[in-house]
Amino acid sequence: MNKVHNMNEIEQTKKEYQAPKTNILGTIGRWLLIICTAIVLIIAAIFYFSYRAITNASADIDVNSSIDVTPTQIESMKQIGEWEFLSISDEEMIDTLRRGFFSDDELIRIYYGTLRLGINMHKTKPHFIKMEKDTLIVTLPPIELLDENFIDEARTKAFYESGSWDDQTREDMYQRAVAKMKERCLTSANITSAQQNASRQFYQLMRSMGHENVKITFDELNDLNDTKDPKDLNPTP
Description:
This protein is an alpha+beta fold. The protein folds into 2 domains: 1-65; 71-218, no CATH class. It has 4 helices and 7 strands; from the N terminus they run ααββββββααβ. It has helices at 2-63, 71-78, 167-185, 188-208, and strands spanning 82-98, 105-120, 129-132, 135-140, 144-145, 157-161, 214-218. Strands 1, 2, 5 and 6 form a 4-stranded antiparallel beta sheet that branches. The chain has a 3-stranded mixed beta sheet with strand order 3-4-7, covered by helices on one side. It is rod-shaped and about 140 Å long. The N and C termini lie far apart (114 Å).
């Protein structure tokens, strides 16, 4: 009986020691499952937010594809100063006659000159570059004669000369040559041509900075030998 009793006690003791082991293993399994689930969720969240960040970055690049004209670039344009867009060479023959009692004196001189038409960037107005909706508007100074001393006096020569002539007569002939060259060269057609060249170059310059829609206009044209105001020119790509 004692043996049987002892055997029952031993079996009961084994059961008591085995039960906690089963409970411990079950608890560890549940914690492992929770930890694995949490790790999977964290990894999924990292991938999700990384994908959203990349997508948003790409969208920002597409929206901000144009390049703004910076104050430094605008100042650099102003510092260009005189910008020539058309050069016209001309020559004029000027004569003067002085009648005398026995004979007449005559002086004929040939003058050569090059008239340069362009714009003076120092004369740009404030905010001459501005955005209107999706279009960049550039307002340039009017076309002008860049140099009033366009006659090359070193090339001036006497075609015919009889008698003696003073400096005042020669100065008068020089001024007549200046007036004739302006009349011949400062025409609406030449000013329009200079504006077209300026528009084309500034248009390409702005396009190279990333602006798709560009409009070039000019301030009111000054009176160049009574020429008319050409209309604004807007080149096409």
